[in-house]
Design goal:
The protein is mainly beta. The protein contains 2 helices and 10 strands, in the order βββββαββαβββ. The protein has one domain. It has a 6-stranded antiparallel beta sheet. Helix 1 runs antiparallel to helix 2.
Length: about 170
């Protein structure tokens, strides 16, 4: 099993629901392709992991990525081919800080000032992350470097198109 980030947005219908059976081009940057990892389907439940994965996130002015460590997946496979499930693992502490404070529009870096508009200050976030970190202790200091994280998700069937090498 592998996780891939899409190169573009998903198609939604007039009610805002994701349209099943559409083609999704895989992101050309292999940073957003996970390594293969174990998984199985038993009694209609997919379980998989662990895997470290970087997943692209782009909404309006936010153009960043998540870096999850020891990610596990558990999902119920539904009769129509869709699934509902949970991603559970650890969100890398440095990535949390960058994700929440680094603001880009495409390749243009807008700095950290946008964090003030979201209800927190960068210094507060910088000091709070290590206080809630509970995973991946640093071998030298023993301080944890990642934060346990759970994400609920729903998915629909799609056709996956791998990018052309060298294109």
């Amino acid at each position: 099993m592998r996780l891939f980030t899409s190169a573009g947005p998903v198609t939604r219908d007039a009610n805002g629901k994701v349209v099943p059976d559409m083609s999704q081009l895989v992101h050309e940057d292999t940073m957003f392709h996970s390594a293969p990892f174990p998984g199985e389907i038993k009694d209609g439940v997919l379980t998989a992991g662990p895997v470290d994965a970087k997943m692209k996130f782009k909404v309006q002015a936010i153009d960043n990525f998540y870096y999850f460590r020891d990610l596990h997946i558990r999902a119920n496979l539904l009769a129509d081919g869709s699934m509902d499930g949970v991603l559970a693992g650890y969100w890398d502490g440095e990535n949390i800080f960058d994700f929440m404070t680094e603001v880009y529009i495409g390749p243009v870096h807008l700095g950290r000032s946008a964090a003030n508009n979201l209800g927190y200050q960068c210094a507060g976030l910088y000091h709070a992350i290590p206080r809630v970190a509970d995973g991946h202790p640093d071998p030298k200091t023993g301080k944890c470097t990642s934060v346990s994280t759970v994400i609920l998700f729903s998915a629909v069937p799609a056709f996956i198109i791998m990018p052309e090498p060298g294109a």
